[in-house]
Amino acid sequence: MSAVTLAVVHTKYNLLETARVPIAVIGSLAFPTLAFCLFVLPQRMVVENPEYATAAVASMVVFAFMSASLFSIGLDLADQRAKPCAPYLRTLPGAPGARIAGLMASTLIVAAVAMVPLLVIGGLFTSAAPQPLDLLAAIGLVIVTAVPSALIGVIIGTTCGPKAAIAVTQVAMFVLAFGGGLFLPPLLFPDWLDLVSKFLPVRQAREIVVGTALGTGAPLWALLGILAWTIVLGALAVWLYRRDEGRRYR
Question: What pTM was estimated for this model as a whole?
Answer without folding.
Answer: 0.87
